[in-house]
Amino acid sequence: MYKKILIALDLEGVNNVKGVPYEALSKDTDQWKIARVQGALEVNAAAEALFLAGAEKVDVWDNHGGGHNIDRADLDGRITLIQSDFSKPRMYFADDYDCVCYFGYHAMEGTLGGVLAHTMSSKTVQFYKLNGKYIGEIDMDAYIAASHGKPSVFFAAGDIACAQAKRAVDGIVTVTTKREISRNEAKFRDNGELFTEIGEKIVEAVSSEHGYKTLDFPASFEKSFKRVEDAEKYLDRLQKKGIAADYLADDILGKDAHTVVSTVHNIGEFIACI
Predict the structure, then answer these.
(1) What is the distance, to the nearest Å, from the Cα of residue 77 to the centroid of all Cα atoms in its chain?
(2) Where are the alpha helices (DSSP H) in the chain?
(3) From residue 194, how far is each of 6, 39, 171, 178 by CA, in Å?
(4) Residue 259, SS3 per DSSP
(5) Which of 26, 59, 2, 8 is nearest to 165 (CA)?
(6) Do 267 and 147 form a contact (C-beta atoms < 8 A)?
(7) What is the 3-state secondary structure (H, E, C) of 8-21?
(8) Exposed / middle / buried, residue 194 (Cβ in 10 Å: 0-12, 13-18, 19+)
(9) What are the backbone angles phi and psi of residue 227, rounded to the nearest 5°?
(10) Is 92 exposed, middle or buried (0-12, 13-18, 19+ CB in 10 A)?
(11) Pairing state of beta strands 133-135 and 125-130?
(12) DSSP secondary-structure letter at 212?
């Protein structure tokens, strides 16, 4: 059994949360207020079952919108709440754990039916691709975890997001928090039933060995923006870091001013391109 568990917590994918037209899940909105409480409840259900099963450490990385979403008072007292130091690489603290579990993640940008579907930024990013294939936040974080030698073993979110997690990570155990109907509509579950399933499935997930797949380098990384100004700033930033990057070549446009393609040679460059 994995004894030291890191829970990566986003908020869009938790139960009882849906979208509002033309709004993200921003701090102090009505849906965010629901999400921050619901996220803590789902994590508590997992932690209670994990500690009962023999876990030594369960920490929560609050990563939605820069963190500072969950009220510490809403969490099980045995949980340590992590707020990232953004001067350091994403998930820099993963070495302290045996595995990673994901709560509240969401479908990637452009996913038909995905509740609050986006990738990293609903305001600025159109899509990410890795080696020509669309990727979302679960893909990114699972690769980063793997670079630390840590498997991604559990994922609780909407049904569409769960399907994407299964494609991203072989053998990941999933729990569906809600049935996703559209960006702004979902069919929610009874919380009591959901918390019971979370407890059972997360213990199942940490009780068996999981493999992990590290990213092969060099790799092609594309990031497409909704506005060309943001693409220009991003390209300049990457080039100043010494990362090989340019606008995506196109037979008609010459170069696609919305999309920057980079060649990454290590996990540090991969994280920098996110």
Answers:
(1) 24
(2) 30-53, 137-147, 159-168, 191-206, 228-240, 267-273
(3) 20, 12, 21, 9
(4) strand
(5) 8
(6) yes
(7) EECCCCCCCCCCEC
(8) buried
(9) -125, 140
(10) middle
(11) antiparallel
(12) -
Residue 193 token pair: 């039933």
Grade residue 179 by pLDDT with cuts at 50, 70 and 90: very high
- What is the per-residue pLDDT across 259-274, written as a single tens digit (0 to 9) for each? 999 999 999 999 999 9
Angle between helices 137-147 and 159-168 (to 10 degrees): 40
For a pLDDT cut of 90, what percent of the chain falls above it? Answer: 98
Residue 84 has pLDDT above 90, yes or no: no
Distance of alpha carbon 61 from alpha carbon 8, whole angstroms = 5
Neighbour-count burial of 87, counting CB atoms closer than 10 A to its CB (0-12 exposed, 13-18 middle, 19+ buried): exposed
Let me know: does 96 contact 42? Beta carbons within 8 Å: no
Q: What angle do CA 169, 171, 176 make, to 5 degrees?
A: 80
**Amino acid in position 228:** V
Looking only at the bridges linking them, the beta strands covering 4-9 and 80-82 are: unpaired
Q: How many helices (H) and strands (E) does the chain have?
A: 6, 13
What CATH number has the domain spanning 4-123+133-206? 3.40.50.10780
Domain boundaries, the chain: 4-123+133-206, 219-273
What is this structure's pTM?
Answer: 0.97
One-letter amino acid identity for 109?
A: E
Rounded to an integer, what distance in angstroms lies between the CA atom of residue 36 and that of residue 82?
A: 15
Query: Hey, what amino acid is at 101?
Result: C
Structure-token match 């999981």, residue found: 210
Tokens of 231: 């693409």
DSSP state of 106: -
